[in-house]
Design brief:
The protein is α+β, with helices and mostly antiparallel strands. The protein has helices spanning about 10-20, 30-35, 40-55, 70-75, 80-100, 140-150, 150-160, 175-185, 230-250; strands at about 55-60, 65, 100-110, 110-120, 135, 190-195, 200-210, 210-220. The longest helix is centred in the last third of the chain and has 22 residues, at about 230-250. Bound molecules: P-hydroxybenzoic acid. Keywords: DNA-binding, Transcription, Transcription regulation.
Length: about 250
């Protein structure tokens, strides 16, 4: 792959262009993209033109660009995320119908919890998770489940990094988190009251595929709600999701 005078490859530059898009910043001009990606304007305009021609970016009448549907199509095709989502969705619907609060599916991705799916009830309370959004591993119930079952090396790295407080109740003490992670492995559930927002409690359980924890299934409850009915519903759903994953492997 041809390198630029600064030594970065074409792939590096394309990735930097794509990464300038966020949930809050979904439309940008080529100049804005260039500035945010740290690329010369002419380079940014050329890469954007080529990505638009390939359908990975789309351009509207006022020449602002957004991520293309083709990118979504390619990213999902045959992906682990799609397989998990398809196995989980009917059973997430069952949890949501029973508990009538937000139900979500998350995986471990680059030391964060990445949310693949979220179902919401019209009467459900606050929830900051977004599909294709992320939360810190140490601060969310899903993240704690994923961290509890992650390789020891990853756990050590996360616990040794600065542990940001998302709310005043987020646990940021590494020694206390280690004890919590051990308890989550023992109990098979994580309950995170007020760790993300003081008004809500996250409750999450692990999903296994071929013996390995591959995802976390969670609900976000109003802070005052008891977690037990949600734990029962999540565990029942996980049994069915694990059966669906096993059937899919055959
Ligand atoms: C959690 O998983 O702990 C969680 C996620 C989103 C919220 C609250 C809690 O808004």
């Amino acid at each position: 792959m041809a390198n630029s005078p600064s030594g970065d490859s074409m792939t590096d530059r394309i990735v930097r262009v794509l990464e300038t898009f966020t949930a809050e910043r979904s439309m940008q001009s080529a100049s804005e993209i260039g500035r945010r990606a740290g690329l010369p304007s002419s380079t940014a305009h050329r890469i954007v033109d080529e990505l638009v021609a390939a359908g990975l970016l789309e351009r509207d009448e006022d020449r602002r660009v957004h991520l293309g549907m083709r990118l979504w199509e390619l990213a999902l095709r045959g992906s682990t995320a799609l397989r998990l989502r398809q196995a989980a969705l009917p059973h997430m619907e069952a949890v949501q119908a029973l508990i009538r609060e937000h139900t979500q599916l998350a995986v471990l991705e680059q030391d964060e919890a990445l949310f693949l799916e979220r179902l919401s009830h019209p009467d459900a309370g606050a929830n900051i998770t977004r599909v294709a959004g992320r939360l810190p591993l140490h601060a969310s119930s899903s993240g704690i489940v994923l961290l509890a079952h992650a390789p020891g090396e990853l756990r050590d790295r996360v616990l040794a990094s600065p542990l940001r407080a998302v709310s005043p109740e987020t646990v940021t003490d590494a020694a206390r988190l280690r004890r919590i992670l051990a308890e989550v492995r023992r109990a098979g559930v994580a309950v995170a009251p007020g760790w993300i927002e003081s008004v809500s409690t996250g409750v999450a359980v692990p999903i296994r595929d071929a013996g390995e924890v591959v995802a976390a299934l969670s609900v976000v409850l109003p802070r005052e709600a008891p977690p037990e009915p949600a734990i029962t519903a999540l565990r029942a759903a996980v049994r069915d999701i694990e059966l669906a994953l096993r059937a899919d492997r055959r």
